[in-house]
Request: fold
Amino acid sequence: MGESRIERQSLPSPRYEYGADDHVFVELAESMSFTANFKAQAITQEVRGRDLPGIVEVAPSNASYLIHFDPGQIQPDDLIEDLRDIEDEIDLTEYTWEARVIDIPVLYDDPWTHETLMKFRDRHQDPDATDLEYSARINGFDGPEEFIEAHAGAPHMVTMVGFVPGLPWTFQMVPRDQQIEVPKYVQPRTETPSRAVGFGGAFTAIYPVQGAGGYQLFGRTPVEVLDVGQELDTFADSMVLPNPGDIINFRRIDRDEYDSIREEVESGEYGYDIGTVDFEPEEFFERPESYTQQLTEVLD
Amino acid sequence: MLRIKEGGLSTTVQDTGRFGNYHIGMPPSGAVDQYAHRIANFLVGNEADAATLEMTYSGPTLEFEEDALIAVCGADMSPSLDGEAVSTWTAIGVDAGQSLEFQFATEGARAYLAVAGGVDVEQVMESRATYTLIGIGGYEGRTLEAGDELPVGEPAADAQEGATVDDDVVPDYGSEDTIRVVMGLCDYRLTDEGRDVLLGTQWKISDEADRVGYRLDADVDIQDLFEEREQPFGAGTDPTNVVDLGYPIGSIQMAGQPIVLMRDAVTGGGYATVGTVVSPDRGTLAQGRSHETVTFESVSVDEALTIRESWNDQLDALREELLG
Amino acid sequence: MADNVIIEAPMPGVFYRRPDPEEPVFAEEGDDVDAGDKVALIGVMKSFHDVTVDTDGVVTEFLVDNESEVEAGDALLTVAPS
Reply:
């Protein structure tokens, strides 16, 4: 039996929008798809590579990208012309990039996010269920166990990093009919534990620090995605772990493993399991299941 | 060395900002009113990117360990040296051992204290700007408190006591502000009427307006300003939601109320942004006090570029005049 | 006996008589206070300013309600100096 493919979406013409005098925002599609996100990643990588004058920030997002520039060095209309040229020139079927595959251990249904979500049942769609029970039910799973298996069963692409430093939005690397979809809370919570793994819309997020939040809470990772003091080796060059274009493998762990990893993280000795692959979108679209399996084989 | 004796309401070390890391969620931080920040620097012989103290509503009390040349620009907080009133928007000589004190701002929200040589805290990612959310930059990544000691850099040799600017350089912070905006980004989500409401309403600056965002209040149901639609895949269920995207600094995010994103902004998310405040007007807005009202005026991108250019020209001329 | 002293808001914001919604008020009308005592807070831009009395005396009246908006210069409370 052949595995199901991911269909490339045909995208509308990009919308080039002025963000006042110093930003250009480019919306590649109104809806989320790998096609739109890979295009955002490819164009922004190309913009970085070309060394255009006056570029201050280049930030890919889920189905769009944002550029902050100095109009003293490049006029917005000239920049947009350059961006259109790049869009025309890039052959997305051929475009590949070097991606890191990062192992993120997760204690699903952990006591900390459980305590938090129970405190905020009155802000939830289904006050009588947990976030995992609710998410499993509305996505047609028998229960949390099967749901967790699906969430940890295939890797997730970091399609955007932001909101606060180090927070990755990830999109699971499966065909659309296997994508999980869960709305955010009806009313956002005022609390979320740090390192919580949450889900909203079609995206998994990891909360780098504690704070407010509206995503459904599935678990907690013992590892950091933001290390301001840069104490762990992995953060020697940057205080933020995930970058757009990275691939995250959420790996289900038990409490004992959570505790022992956490201990290593706190003592500064934890070594992240990170591999590097040459990511080929075309291969991924053609055979998502076997290709993503192959990608995660670079992990220990 | 500057010794902080009282921290003030919310005082941070700021500069022109930290750039190049927006794609990993790092906002620029830096002085929210770059106009006052830069002029304060020029008056004491510093370049624009030297770090100043940004003081909100009420300034700190601080003591100078060495002789210094200082300037205070922005909201008027009636500074005094050892009890004697000193001029603002003017380079003032300070003797070692003297104390500088501020009163509450009567107009405007933020003042900037520049010291010749700049506040010389360590750089983080090439900037001294404080970003309190994750505690980086400035002094230990936080607002100043009694007991903090801030190093001062080497002053430029030719900085002059008494340097000042013309009266017309000093903004009138008491006047009602019109904030110029280039509509766009996701403004297709607004109905024509919704757009008119956004541009026609007198918005009141909320008590929670801060360096992250200026929240604006009015008796307006934000959802009513939006076109109904079937939400696209990944966008979330509320009509104000879009597939998560990057927010420009200065953009107006429609999250239950309009929020103009300032320099410690959240860098992206799933609320529709519908326009962006022209860069010089972000500083004007940052001088708006809670409960004051602002209105938005739509301008074209060409007008925005002209506004920015004349702002730059004015600052360049002042720099030329003061730094030579 | 000296006249009541009026304490004014130095800045706009929200007037709080408690450190936290669950906690008791800083001071009640009729309470004895010492110079420097904190009797309320003004919250603005997610920072809090301590409202203190500058004389020993008795709090005679709170002129604004807890959690109401105040402007700079608004009279907040009166204190009868002792």
Notes: Chain C has no helices and eight strands. Chain C has a mean pLDDT of 93. The beta strands of chain C are 5-8, 13-16, 32-33, 38-44, 47-52, 57-62, 69-70, 75-81. Chains C and A do not touch (no CB pair under 8 Å).
